[in-house]
Specification:
alpha+beta; Thrombin, subunit H; Pdz3 Domain; six-stranded antiparallel barrel; six-stranded antiparallel beta barrel; globular
Length: 376
């Protein structure tokens, strides 16, 4: 009897064990299949997501490229060729062709024919040059304003209904932002060439030595967009098609280092010409340098802010009120100054006869000086 009971017990044990094993196997199989389905689902989802993401990225890139191309095409219609000689049909493949023929670039900034370029391209005030538009029409232009220190000029042609470029805000630009340079490198055979790059730096100062004369160009925009001699006077634009600078100079001893003059410096003058057809420039009668230039002049000279006066024009308002070489102008009408361009921009908004107040620092003492502006 006991033996039969043991057999029954063993049988029960075997049955229970087999049931447990079957349940475990069934559960494991179910979980395995569930895991596989989940994994496959994730892969499918990931593939779909990746494909969608890639597709969107490509579409966005294509759309951005199209928009940039449209913008550049529109701005290019306002870019002109400038020559000091009317006989500009000779090939520019001659050595130094751009220099011998005086070839360069300009950008139209009003529908009635005002054009910005470099002074070294157009010549000085009251001189003449020749302008070739995008449609091939040629005009004689008059230089109505120029500044040697800035290497900027404004010329005027007798035309109406011209396509003109919009001016941006060069005070808001930052290194790393995309820019495009448009111009006529070497000559007219390569007119309206577009090069791309970034803003490499702002507020650059470079030292220029030529014909035993040393000068400094300040507050420049540095870019790696290719700038060649014929690009001088052409626009440096942002992706919105706004002109933020006028291309001016390239470092020949290095690659991808070019400079443009910030557009904000000349905005008040352009505005005056567009509104009144005239601009009468007011003047203090000084020439000053930024802090960045001071190490070239005197490594021991230090000051927190202001611009350093290096020259007083004879019989100027500055001489009449006793401003001296070595003075530091820290403010004008309460506006803090750190760059000569800031002083220029403010003076450009004034007229001869207007009075301004300067804060002058001399030997550590700061004192206000009222000065009446004169005609330059």
């Amino acid at each position: 009897m006991k033996k039969k009971k043991r057999v029954n017990d063993n049988l029960k044990t075997v049955v229970v064990t087999m049931s447990i094993l079957f349940f475990i196997t069934l559960t494991g199989f179910y979980l395995f299949n569930l895991y596989i389905n989940i994994d496959i689902g994730n892969e499918e989802n990931q593939s779909t997501y990746s494909a969608t993401k890639t597709s969107q990225t490509v579409a966005e890139i294509n759309e951005e490229s199209k928009e940039i191309a449209d913008v550049i095409e529109e701005v290019s219609n306002s870019v002109v060729g400038i020559s000091k000689l009317k006989e500009n049909g000779n090939s520019i493949f001659l050595n130094d062709g751009s220099i011998k023929l005086g070839l360069g670039t300009g950008v139209i900034v009003s529908e009635d024919g005002y054009i910005i370029t470099n002074e070294h391209v157009s010549g000085s005030k009251y001189s003449n040059c020749y302008v070739t538009l995008e449609n091939g029409k040629e005009y004689q232009a008059n230089v109505v304003w120029s500044d040697t220190d800035l290497d900027l000029s404004i010329i005027k042609i007798n035309a109406k209904g011209l396509t003109y470029a919009n001016l941006g805000d060069s005070d808001k630009i930052r290194p790393g932002e995309k820019v495009y340079a448009i111009g006529n490198p070497i000559g007219f055979e390569f007119q309206r060439t577009v090069t791309a790059g970034i803003i490499s730096a702002v507020d650059r100062t470079i030292k220029i030595e030529e014909e035993d004369k040393t000068s400094y160009m300040e507050d420049l925009i540095q870019t790696d967009a290719t700038i060649n001699p014929g690009n001088s006077g052409g626009p440096l634009i942002n992706p919105n098609g706004e002109v933020i600078g006028i291309n001016s100079i390239k470092i020949t001893s290095a690659e991808a280092i070019g400079f443009a003059i910030p557009i904000n410096i000349i905005k008040p003058i352009i505005q005056s010409y567009k509104q009144t057809g005239n601009f009468t420039e007011a003047s203090i009668g000084i020439f000053s340098y930024d802090k960045n230039v001071i190490p070239y002049l005197d490594s021991k000279l230090e000051f927190d802010n202001g611009i350093y006066v290096v020259e007083i024009i004879k019989n100027s308002p500055a001489e009449k009120v006793g401003i001296k070489t070595g003075d530091i102008i820290t403010k004008i009408d309460g506006i803090t100054l750190n760059k000569m361009s800031e002083l220029r921009k403010y003076i450009y908004t004034k007229k001869p006869g207007d009075e301004v107040t300067l804060l002058i620092q001399r030997k550590g003492i700061i004192s206000p000086v009222k000065i009446q502006l004169a005609k330059k």
